[in-house]
Amino acid sequence: MQNKDTLADTTTSKQSFNHNQLPLVVGVDLGGTQIRTAVLRGSTLLSRVSLMTGKNPSPGRIIPRVYTAIQEALGKAGTTIEQIAGIGIAAPGPLDSKTGVIFTPPNMPGWDHVPLRDLFTEHFHIPIFLENDANAGGLAEHMFGAGRGCNNLVYLTISTGIGGGVIIDGKILEGVSGTAGEVGHMTIDWHGERCPCGNIGCLEYIASGTSIARKANEAIHAGEGIELLTFARTMLQHSTTVPNPSALPTQGHDPATVELRFPPEETDDTSLGSETGDEQQEEHLHVNARTVALAAESGIPLARAIIQNAAEAIGVGLVNIIHGFNPEMIILGGGVTQMGRMLMEPAQRVVQERAMKVPREAVRIVQAQLGDNVGLVGAGALIYYSARPGPKSRAGTGSHHGWTGVRRRSHARQTGYAHPT
Ligand SMILES: [Zn+2]
Fold this sequence. Notes:
2 domains; single chain; alpha/beta; binds zinc ion
């Protein structure tokens, strides 16, 4: 399993440091449903321990479990906290990376102005850093992924939501309140629908995986998607042959999505005389973005139209990013971008048709390289980032030493360290 978790350190040539000489760090990826911790050296995971947040993700219950998970990860990597240069935490915003406080993340109920950095500092007594997860992802790709050697890039992650991390002149763009880079909430359709963030017609509300699924389920609910519904039903009937089970539609009550009911004439063996029987045989199906993608690949027009619409919205978003930041690179990550050409060709076409020539010709739009571990690598990268030479001073405890200071101290600590492969 460890090999699976280990990311190949493919090209270090562009880096200004030797990957093998980087100190050990701990990364924490704080998600709404899962929290992952790892011991890393650069982008290489030496161990990983995950825990599910469960039904009660209150800070009082979760934080001690994260401490335990970190200790387990240290043990699995054959090291101790004394050998660790710092702990980086990537968390959903809004948060203040300068003070290390998490405000009220929508997917983490019970969290309200939690001073996470101070709590971790009191427990571990080593430097602690906190950063928005999309910013951490951008930093990870900048230091260890597709953006190595590129100091002006925008990382766009498209999955259940759409997040962004902007690196300008090698630094994370934070803004005055730490919320810069929220490119998922740029307006694409100013006559559009209200996004939960308060704005109207946000990129996220049009093109995220959640939105692709919502549009499909709404269309089917409105009676416009019999073909898609039949496709979803066939998938379920042959579920054992579906290569990616996460693409399967789900059955049963799901308050997060519009409920779908097969009309009686669509179900087999309908017994019109028995209301009780009908009640029991009703199927509530919810398609997800992967279901829609598979249906689009199979040529189902509704699915193709939904993906095309999302793709063009992403294209418009890319144009706005190109105009706003003049980046050398835009790095696309997240599950939705796995749709590949079906998504990227319409998006690239919009960019070619609409973006201004000079910034358009300066930008490369590429796929992210770090995959599912991007959050952990980004969290760990916060320690290396804080120690890079330069005028900036990150706010983490003990962050005023220079890069060489961290390295020297870490070397001293590594006496007796046995590499666990
Ligand atoms: Zn929004």
